Fold:
Amino acid sequence: MKKLTLKNLTTLPYSAEEAMNRLLVNFGLCGREFKKVIVTSSVPNEGKSFVSTHLWRLLAESGNKVILVDADIRKSVIRNRYQLSAEDPNPLGLAHYLAGQTELEDVLYATNVKNGFIVPTFRTVANPAILLQSDRFSLMLDRLAQVSDYVLIDTPPLTNVSDGGLIASYCDGALLVVRSGSTPKGLVANSIKQLTLANCRLLGTVLNRVEQKQNSYYSKYYRYGYGYGYTDENGKKKHRAHHSNSGKSPSSPEGGMGTK
Ligand SMILES: Nc1ncnc2c1ncn2[C@@H]1O[C@H](COP(=O)(O)OP(=O)(O)OP(=O)(O)O)[C@@H](O)[C@H]1O
Ligand SMILES: [Mg+2]
Structure:
């Protein structure tokens, strides 16, 4: 198997790493029958790629064999953000496989994250809907699920293009990322409706990029702080908590897992 190195994937600052760890635990509680999991959101920039990549890393670090599929074929960011480097100067990825130019074995890579495998996107395609509708895509997900514990699929947002809904229809479950203080409730509700129509079970929502209020208990002791909150599957906030952090960091994601 060919190998890819992610040069820029580091452990997160304390509070964000802790929140991701809680998401990891909650995700594990959903059960191993949910193997093919789409990570999606309503609109761009809510944190799908961030959450899917770090959840992939943590699942792998905790001993699961896990495959990250970069299915945002229109404008993949994973390649550049994490500085994917392959031995081959012209590496093959998902679009090559879907177009029938190569086989799955050539686009499934081992990585420098132990137990972590990737099907990357190295060539973007302006309108991949036809490729995603092909049997090759659903067969690929089934085959990947057979050889791993989990397959996480990073996708474009549900509202803008049809790719996400289509991919959801091939998956066992969905994680819906919601950007705190930004995504309108109506759009979240609409995304949940789309996942239902795609017959894809909502495993939980991840409220992402929540800034902690500075007057919290912990902020008396630490200069920077970030908080997280839960939402249920109807987009309603259920709980809010705070974490402390002694350095500048990304805001914390947190998963509120539930079933429909
Ligand atoms: N919890 C977080 N804390 C800090 N920054 C974050 C967090 N989540 C995401 N970001 C940043 O926000 C930006 C958008 O995140 P990301 O690319 O993951 O969103 P996306 O939903 O995948 O976007 P798109 O819809 O364009 O694919 C990136 O710069 C990312 O590093
Ligand atoms: Mg993305």
In short: The CA atoms of residues 42 and 191 lie 6 Å apart. The chain has one domain: 3-257.
